[in-house]
């Protein structure tokens, strides 16, 4: 049996190649993501471990800043002198590290990275652990000098002697580049500007007595943990945060973890789609191979092989396929990881591909995924093969029938479909977002499984409709192509299922994204009353001097500032909720349209008061007049009175939990040092919008990071952000289509082999080669369009249910992108044509006599 199995596998290796490609893609994305994330993690672990001080003292921050406030947490620089007196300390340095700077050259072009990485301003305090070293020029001295990292200098063609303008939180200032610093370790992609320590304190923190942290070096024989305890005892354990080198490195890695997780989850998403779609392809391939080998399997049974041996033989072939696909997939995954590392290099993150990390988990995962996919996919065909009777060797009977198994599918599909429908209905009627989202996920999974199970039952009614015009358009060729697709509903259903999964995903996400876009458009139209909004390109806050210059712009009338701050509120029901609150100037009503359930803007923005979303207030037992304890950054606390309740759908809370906002006077009292994140500007009487825009753009020309947006621009900004999600979905669709094309090609190729004698007879009675190719192409097109129709129908249901979940968050508009749906159906027909090219060409080149004589 083993010899027979190996010979069978080698005899059909060409037919199994496309299935091996599906395994290869599945394994490649899994292993590529593991290798890439492990390599990047190891690289940054070494970077942070080698550069962290033995002990780092930093300001205590109890609140996470989900939305940037522009506030830089500081501590007294004089602490360094106190720390130096602690037993076991050899050195203590006051550090200055400020993110969110903008640096421009003499032509007012940004010098920093454009990939989302930050531009950092830091004090030049070189030590043995510094990640950079001075490689040309000299160290900065005094107000007007700075160093620039070599990669930024090379990328932007900045040289020693050039003048740069640094736009920092306290304001703008010019520096002359006097030296270039080169990274001795990995550059995480940031641009670094180094200033004299005194200058960094004055220009970046607006105080010569402030620092962002204190770096402490331990004496020989003193452990980091011992030094941490001694420094904490000297300064007060609860006053600041104290971290050892290991703890600081871990904290830095965690901050970077969000970026790495995004890449990892995207890769896992691709891997999941590849695995799911690959399963359909492998099931189809093995089912067809077993159907074609009915006589062979029957002969094995007649010669004495029992059911277990036949089943084991087929599963052994699947394991061999999995081994080959996994091995090739592991190699492809290494190449994919290397490509991602090179891509990161182009984006400014330099990782040495020669230090690629391939841990034992990676190959184990590769073979578990590859072997698992093929084994699971081949199990049902293997069971079917074991049922072949010895008498089948004497006839041309196929294993796959259309009787009882389809009835079983009908029952199973109906049961699973009913459960999925119930979950989706529950999602629609649910009133809590969390429960609605859970039911949506369950409904999507169950409805997908039900459609896959019941797919063959839908083949005949749907394809009869889709191919109804074929006989009229293409005559007997069209009729034969339609009947070929109807001949084996299981095969057609499994082939179309691969395409259906991808199109269901893109259909659902397209409806959801179109609904989100339409809802945001409605909300912006409803709430934004300002002529223009001034914002940073990446939504980071900007210096106060920008606000001052906007206010002084010719034609500018009312200017209302908006700021953000992290807060924690203690609620009457005992909950402590961390969220982001906003602060606004008076006259907010003139630039925003807010629906108040109780109170008004005057009550909301009054000193010591705040506004809150009515639903949030109701859920936590808050009413107008209630006093709510609020925690601000830096440990400040205040009891604020609820002055107004709003409708979150139209509140200027930017979708933050609770919709909290208050007056800027309140914000500046309890969270000083923040920066404006938005300016809402109305034109002065007698000034047109076009004139004001031109004046504002001229005013803001020295600040390339700040943009002037009107209502249409603001909408386009939201559209672009949602489009990023769509691009990911389209990429997943592309992967699904690639594997689906492989599936259609595989099915048609095996079908051609299966119908060799039939094709020979058709050619013998006068069917031309061109007609034969057209017949196979039409068969492929109708299968692909069948998959598209099922997928889009399922996707539309998912999309509508997703909209109901979004509606609970205020996004109530439902939009169906009919243009996208029509384009997908047309594209599916094109996919069918492309997938049929090679099988049709192969069929047309058959020798007629050899085909007729084929057994």
UniProtKB/TrEMBL annotation:
Domain MacB-like periplasmic core positions: 17-233, 492-698
Stored InterPro entries: ABC3_permease_C, MacB_PCD, Macrolide_Exporter_MacB
Superkingdom, taxonomy of origin: Bacteria
Transmembrane segments: 265-291, 318-340, 360-382, 410-430, 436-459, 493-516, 724-753, 778-798, 818-838
ABC3 transporter permease C-terminal domain segment(s): 270-390, 732-848
Cellular component GO terms held in the UniProt record: plasma membrane
UniProt entry keywords in alphabetical sequence: Cell membrane, Membrane, Transmembrane, Transmembrane helix
Pfam family, one: MacB_PCD
Main localization, broad class: membrane
Assigned protein family: Belongs to the ABC-4 integral membrane protein family.
Designated name of the protein: ABC transporter permease YtrF
Organism of derivation: Streptomyces afghaniensis 772
């Amino acid at each position: 049996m083993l010899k027979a199995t190996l010979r069978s596998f080698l005899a059909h290796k060409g037919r199994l190649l496309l299935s091996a490609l599906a395994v290869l893609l599945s394994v490649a994305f899994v292993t590529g993501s593991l290798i890439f994330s492990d390599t990047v993690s190891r690289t940054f672990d070494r970077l942070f471990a080698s550069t962290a001080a033995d002990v780092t003292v930093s300001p205590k921050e109890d609140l996470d800043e989900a939305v940037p406030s522009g506030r830089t947490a500081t501590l007294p620089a004089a602490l360094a002198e106190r720390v130096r007196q602690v037993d076991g300390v050899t050195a203590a340095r006051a550090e200055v590290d400020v993110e969110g700077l903008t640096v421009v050259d003499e032509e007012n072009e940004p010098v920093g990275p454009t990939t989302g990485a930050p531009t950092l301003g830091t004090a030049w305090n070189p030590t043995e652990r510094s990640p950079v070293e001075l490689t040309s020029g000299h160290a900065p001295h005094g107000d007007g000098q700075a160093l620039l990292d070599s990669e930024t200098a090379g990328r932007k063609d900045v040289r020693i002697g050039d003048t740069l303008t640094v736009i920092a939180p306290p304001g703008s200032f010019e520096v002359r580049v006097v030296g270039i610093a080169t990274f001795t370790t990995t550059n995480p992609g940031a641009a670094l500007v180094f200033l004299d320590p005194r200058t960094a304190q004055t220009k970046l923190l607006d105080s010569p007595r402030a620092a962002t942290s204190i770096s402490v070096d331990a004496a020989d024989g003193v452990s980091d943990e011992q030094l941490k305890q001694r420094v904490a005892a000297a300064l007060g354990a609860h006053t600041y945060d104290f971290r050892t080198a290991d703890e600081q490195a871990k904290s830095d890695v965690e901050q970077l973890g969000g970026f790495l997780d995004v890449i990892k989850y995207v890769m896992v998403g691709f891997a999941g789609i590849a695995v799911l779609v690959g399963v359909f392809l492998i099931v189809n391939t093995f089912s067809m191979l077993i159907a074609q080998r009915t006589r062979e399997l029957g002969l094995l049974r007649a010669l004495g092989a029992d059911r277990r041996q036949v089943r084991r033989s087929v599963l052994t072939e699947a394991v061999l396929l999995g081994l080959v696909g996994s091995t090739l997939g592991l190699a492809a995954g290494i190449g994919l990881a290397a490509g991602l590392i090179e891509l990161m290099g182009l984006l400014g993150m330099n990782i040495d591909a020669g230090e690629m990390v391939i841990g034992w988990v990676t190959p184990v995962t590769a073979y578990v995924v590859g072997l698992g996919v093929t084994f699971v996919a081949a199990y049902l065909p293997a069971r079917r093969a074991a049922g072949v009777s010895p008498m089948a060797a004497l006839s041309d009977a196929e294993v796959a029938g259309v009787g009882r198994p389809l009835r079983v599918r009908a029952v199973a599909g109906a049961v699973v479909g009913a459960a999925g429908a119930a979950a989706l209905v529950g999602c629609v009627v649910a009133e809590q977002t969390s429960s609605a989202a859970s039911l949506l996920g369950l409904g999507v999974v169950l409805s997908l499984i039900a459609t896959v199970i019941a797919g063959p039952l839908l083949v005949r009614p749907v394809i009869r409709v889709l191919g109804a015009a074929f006989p009229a358009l293409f005559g007997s060729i069209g009729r034969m192509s339609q009947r070929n697709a109807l001949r084996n509903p299981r095969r057609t259903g499994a082939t179309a299922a691969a395409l259906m999964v991808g199109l269901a995903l893109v259909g659902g996400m397209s409806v959801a994204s179109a609904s989100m876009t339409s809802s945001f458009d409605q909300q912006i139209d409803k709430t934004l009353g300002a002529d223009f909004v001034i914002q940073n390109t990446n939504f980071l806050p900007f210096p106060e001097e920008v606000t001052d210059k906007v206010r002084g712009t010719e034609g500018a009338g009312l200017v209302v500032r908006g700021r953000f701050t992290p807060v924690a509120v203690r609620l009457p029901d005992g909950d402590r909720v961390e969220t982001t609150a906003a602060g606004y100037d008076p006259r907010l009503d003139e630039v925003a349209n807010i629906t108040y359930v109780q109170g008004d803007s005057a009550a909301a923005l009054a000193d010591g008061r705040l506004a809150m979303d009515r639903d949030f207030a109701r859920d936590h037992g808050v009413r107008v007049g209630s006093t709510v304890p609020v925690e601000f950054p830096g440990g400040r606390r205040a009891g604020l009175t609820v002055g107004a309740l709003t409708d979150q759908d139209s509140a200027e809370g930017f979708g933050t939990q609770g919709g909290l906002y208050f007056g800027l006077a309140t914000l500046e009292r309890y969270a000083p040092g923040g920066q404006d994140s938005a300016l809402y500007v109305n034109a002065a009487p007698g000034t047109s919008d076009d004139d004001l825009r031109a004046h504002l753009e001229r005013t803001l020309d020295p600040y390339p990071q700040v943009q002037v947006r009107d209502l249409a621009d603001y909408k386009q900004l939201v559209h672009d952000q949602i489009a990023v999600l769509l691009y990911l979905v389209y990429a997943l669709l592309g992967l699904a289509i690639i594997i689906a094309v492989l599936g259609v090609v595989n099915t048609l190729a095996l079908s051609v082999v299966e119908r060799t004698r039939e094709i020979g007879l058709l050619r013998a009675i006068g069917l031309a080669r061109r007609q034969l190719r057209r017949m196979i192409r039409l068969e492929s097109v109708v299968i692909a369009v069948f998959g598209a129709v099922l997928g889009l129908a399922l996707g539309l249901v998912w999309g509508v249910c997703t909209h109901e979940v979004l509606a609970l968050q205020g996004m109530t508009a439902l939009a169906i992108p009919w243009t996208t749906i029509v384009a997908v159906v047309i594209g599916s027909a094109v996919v069918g044509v492309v997938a049929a090219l090679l099988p049709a060409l192969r069929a047309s080149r058959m020798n007629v006599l050899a085909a007729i004589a084929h057994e």
